[in-house]
Amino acid sequence: MAGSPSIWSGRNVLVTGATGLLGSWLIKDLLDLGASVVSFVRDCDPQSELVRSGDYKRTRMVSGALEDYAAIARTINELEVQTVFHLGAQTIVGAAQRSPLQTFESNIRGTYNLLEACRLHPTLVSAVVVASSDKAYGHSDKLPYTEDLPLSGKQPYELSKSCTDLISQGYFHSYKLPVSIARCGNIYGGGDLNWSRIIPGTIMSCLRGIRPVIRSDGTFVRDYLYVKDASRAYICLAEQVISGSEAGEAFNFSPEKALSVIEIVKAILELTGHTFEPEIQNIAAGEIHSQYLDATKAKNRLGWKPEFKLQDGLKETIAWYQKFATDLPD
Fold it and tell me: Of 112, 157, 292, 321, which residue is the catalytic one?
């Protein structure tokens, strides 16, 4: 089991972005630990893992937008939130490129709204973990990325995550808000319904018996972190902040195994028993070519390390989508 039940049992925990990939699995772990979870959602997607699993019935669900300060402040105050996992964001690079204003409103305004509401309730909120991203670093020729690199996002999505990260650091340094920051590589797992992403898109193509599509030229390099490892990383970090350490710090979480897009696609094809040749479109825009993380700090300071090998994570992920596909209407 992830985490310590003695810390989480009965603790009021707010998770924003609750129906997202990470939110759904994090809530599952928190419920298993005995936490009293408040799920903050903008759209209650019935296909999300949170809803499909029935876990939402075990949470107190609040419908609202991160851009609405009053909704967040009311939630924290009236439900007496003690710990916050801020995962809610617009996470699609292409959507940010097409409509940066919506991404900035959700990711930047949403972050300072949440942190300000936490700041005003210091007797309630004792720990906040904010989801940043490897994208917050922007482009760097120094690989793998370490936490001491500057945050220099240039494209809309990268920029929104750089701002999220810096605002969080600012609330610690200016107001001593007990906030820490998680920077993950590409998180994958069952329940990711963003089909433009390479892993869910490729799996669903294989299940439908069609060639998977690669939007880039296939050589783009990333690290891929299984969602269960990501969930446990967030819980590990939150426990440190609750105990009074690591506030104001940022941590990279990564399996430290960089793979090209074509390598991850071939791994999925092999596990699903297909011999398709992927359709390489080479039309990706606004994305960094090579980006992966060094997780030494998390290993040394938090004692965290991933538990799942890529093949095992992919097998569980494929099984989730197989069940998902059989449940879809004809």
Answer: 157
